[in-house]
Amino acid sequence: MPKIVDHDKQREWVAEAALRVIQKGGLEKATVRNIAEEAGLSVGSMRHYFSSQAELLAFCMNLIIERIEKRLTSLSLKGPVFSDMKLVLMQFLPMDEDRTMEMEVWMSFVAKALIYPELRKINDEMYDGLTKACHFVIDSLVTHELAKPELDLEYEKERIYALVDGLAIHHIMRPQQLTQDKIEKIIDQHLQSLCIDELIMP
Questions:
Q1: Model confidence pLDDT, tens digit, residues 89-101
Q2: Which of 6, 119, 167, 190 could join 113 in a cystine, given CB atoms 3.0 to 4.6 angstroms apart?
């Protein structure tokens, strides 16, 4: 009997190998030969799963988006609200090995999206996800009457988006200067600055 291969599982296996290659050496190392070697496949067999490098990169980025969405949907947001909102934002920051890998790969991908127009839609989807999370945080603070009444909500949504995105990039580029402890403290302080003083949770 011929061996039955799960095509979708194998594509995911190849994508996981590609992510490891990109993390270790950047996109310039993400050649068919290097990825095939990492995945334990022949170069010829790679073409059965992805017809081009752009298709493989798109699959990799969708895989990262799915991971982030899975983390967000699996969160147990039972309060206090301040802690819950912090937890949501932390899903987009390189606070562990998996999230660091995702951010490192994503930074490499953003540069590639400038070259391949077919990748820009996926790039936008990633940033749309962060935008929605930031809007959710601000709207939740308002809904639970934690937000200062004088806040310009649209401005604050953009500001918290820029803060999270900037912290992620800064940590990847200079992890010794911006440590994970500092990231957490900055997020804490920023959320506290949005809240009515007497309602801030410790």
A1: 999 999 988 888 8
A2: 119
